[in-house]
Design goal:
The complex is a heterodimer. Chain A has 13 helices and 4 strands. By secondary structure, chain A is an all-alpha fold. Chain A has one domain: ABC transporter involved in vitamin B12 uptake, BtuC, CATH 1.10.3470. In chain A, a hairpin with a 2-residue loop joins strand 2 and strand 3. The longest helix of chain A has 27 residues. Chain A starts with a helix and ends with a helix. In chain A, 47% of the residues are buried. Chain B is an all-alpha fold. Chain B starts with a helix and ends in an 11-residue tail after the last helix. Chain B has a two-stranded antiparallel sheet with strand order 1-2. The chains are: A mainly alpha, B mainly alpha. Chains A and B meet through helix 5, helix 10 and helix 12 of A and helix 4, helix 9, helix 11 and helix 12 of B.
């Protein structure tokens, strides 16, 4: 019994990680509904994890994240519509979102807490408004299609399998980078900012700069997801970045568990299932989703990941008890 | 010139509607530190309620009163349940009211459908008059009616806040909530009152707004953005800030729509950015909030 529990403590994480990776690689081989669903989940998970990096670690919850996904996606689509070669279009998308993140960050990190939420919400709505109203640039409600994807030598994103694998790899890289950041001294300082910024500043940390960096990182990775999004879907339209889309990302993070990186990825999986599966059987799926968010806030502030962690802690406590008795 | 004048009046009308929504939002924040993101959804629900009551009774004013009362009851119940369960956790309240938006919107969609609805004003209010301005511009009476009502409500609220005991308690609550509590005043009742009042105004605004802006799914997030822009410009929690912010946002939005239609929605952001850079707490915001 004790040995089994100790094995579980040691290997659950790595084994689950490897198993999920293997399952994803296998499932992504075949064309069809399942692989499309998984790719959607992975793209949204990148956004959710970026949002969590900002919200869960620094306490800055952005309600405008879908806007930056839109900027990455529109950057690519508009560049391609102006006959830029595909790789250059990717550069335009990523460049646009990076510049925007750098500029808007100056405004955004001036405030914290509720004001930050409100301001990012306003930013997101404005970006949505541009996509919706600036028809000359964005084609308005119709959106812009993207049909030619980048390729170099034998590596060709126009090949569906290559594209799916690329999404998986980008997801893994972003996840590992974000995890690395959170465990670095920089990540520790971010957590310090969330719990007591004044104290951290008194210790000599440049907290404003750290918040700014966290913002730029989160915005940029969201833009990366935007580029993948437009390649996967072949179209970007204003609905992708409307108010309800912004809410969905926050929902993913809160449902998955703020401040855990993997939790929000799990949240993305659940929400995409809600959106694409449950909506087939249940007209009022949005009601159910809203109620889910309220229920999580009320009863399980740690989200799904928090519940898993709690189970892990119970196991560790059991190990400790068994060790004492033996 | 007449055209510009008409646009200015349109902007003032919009400012009136925005004021009715954002004054409740800002007072609730000021007194309770609750960011009620579902405030826009309450506006929309009020508009829809009014639409149905007007359809059943054929009386605009019944609809107006019914929507205001229904939303006041809704707000009261919301404060007594969800908001009080989550009390003292700002982010949880914000997230829970975000969830509530999906619920309200979805239920409204199920009941009233997805096509935009418009509320028609009755009789004289539905007609237009020639105004003795700039050589006589023809302007809808309904919009002047909205403008007049907003001014009356603004003055009434100001009197409530400045001239009554309840108002003094509310203002004191905005300044220092803990001290008000320590003085033995029942803060719970003040919270209920302010939240109910905010919802009442939002429902009321929904019916008035439904006569000039359409009622449609997603219309609530537009109104919410207006309210948020207003509180950033005016200062979160400040009543006078809500008046000033509403004027700025209403006029800017309307001039934007009239003269720069392709970026109208985004032009709203201009005053917001400027205020954030120059005075992050808003033009009339308190330093301590």
């Amino acid at each position: 019994m004790l040995a089994a529990l100790q094995l579980s403590r040691r290997f659950t994480g790595p084994v689950a990680g490897v198993a999920i990776a293997v399952i994803l690689v296998i499932l992504l081989q075949a064309n069809g509904f399942t692989s499309t669903l998984i790719v959607d989940m992975l793209v949204y998970a990148i956004v959710a994890m970026s949002l969590d990096f900002l919200g869960g670690y620094t306490g800055l919850i952005s309600l405008g994240q879908a806007g930056f996904l839109g900027v990455g996606a529109y950057g690519v689509a508009i560049a391609e519509a102006h006959f830029y070669p595909p790789w250059a279009a990717v550069g335009v998308g990523l460049g646009a979102v990076l510049v925007l993140g750098l500029v808007l960050g100056v405004v955004a990190v001036r405030v914290k807490g509720i004001s930050f939420v409100i301001i990012t919400l306003a930013m997101g709505q404005v970006l949505w408004g541009l996509a919706f109203q600036w028809v000359g640039l964005s084609e308005g409600d119709n959106g812009i299609p993207v049909s030619i994807l980048p390729s170099i030598g034998p590596y060709d994103l126009n090949n569906a399998l290559t594209l799916r694998m690329t999404v998986l790899v980008v997801f893994a890289v972003v996840a590992l980078l974000l995890i690395t950041f959170t465990r670095s001294p920089f990540g520790l300082s971010l957590r310090g900012i969330r719990s007591n910024e004044t104290r951290l500043a008194a210790l000599g940390y440049r907290t404003g700069l750290h918040r700014y960096l966290a913002w730029v990182i989160a915005v940029f990775f969201t833009g990366v997801a935007g580029v993948l999004y437009v390649f996967v879907n072949g179209l970007i339209s204003p609905t992708t970045m409307d108010f309800s889309a912004n809410g969905f990302f926050v929902l993913m993070v809160v449902l998955g568990g703020l401040g855990s990186i993997w939790g929000p990825a799990l949240g993305a999986v659940v929400i995409v299932l809600f959106q694409q599966e449950l909506s087939i059987y249940l007209d009022r799926w949005q009601t159910l989703m809203g109620l889910t968010l309220i229920a999580v806030v009320l009863f399980s502030p740690g989200g799904l990941w928090g519940a898993l962690r709690a189970a892990g802690r119970r196991r560790d406590a059991l190990i400790a008890r068994l060790q004492e008795t033996s | 010139m007449p055209q510009f004048l008409a646009q200015t009046l349109n902007g003032l009308t919009l400012a009136g509607i925005i004021f009715l929504v954002s004054s409740g939002f800002t007072l609730v924040f000021g007194v309770m530190r609750v960011t009620n993101l579902s405030h826009g959804a309450v506006y929309l629900l009020g508009g829809y309620t009014g639409y149905s009551v007007i359809g059943a009774t054929h009386n605009f004013f019944y609809g107006l009163v019914a929507a205001a009362v229904a939303m006041a009851v809704f707000g009261f119940l919301l404060e007594r349940t969800l908001i009080s369960w989550l009390h003292r956790s700002e982010m949880s309240e914000l997230l829970a009211t975000l969830g509530l938006i999906y619920v309200i919107d979805d239920i409204a969609l199920a009941i009233w459908g997805g096509s935009p609805l418009t509320i028609n004003l009755p009789g004289f209010l539905g007609k237009s008059s020639t105004l003795p301005l700039a050589g006589g511009i023809v302007y809808p009476n309904g919009r002047l009616f909205i403008l007049a009502i907003s001014v009356v409500v603004a003055v009434g609220l100001y009197a409530l806040l400045r001239r009554t005991r309840v108002g003094a308690i509310i203002r004191a609550g905005v300044d220092d909530r803990d001290m008000v509590n320590a003085l033995g005043i029942n803060v719970r009742r003040v919270f209920s009152l302010v939240f109910t009042l905010g919802a009442l105004l939002a429902g009321f605004a929904g019916v008035l707004g439904g006569t000039v802006l359409n009622l449609y799914t997603g219309g609530d997030s537009d109104i919410l953005l207006f309210a948020l822009a207003v509180v950033i410009v005016g200062g979160l929690g400040s009543y006078e800030g809500a008046i000033l912010g509403s004027l700025v946002i209403g006029l800017v939005d309307n001039y934007g729509t009239a003269y720069f239609p392709s970026v109208a929605y985004s032009i709203l952001f201009l005053p917001v950015i400027i205020v954030l850079l120059v005075k992050p707490r808003g033009l009339l915001g308190k330093a301590s909030t």
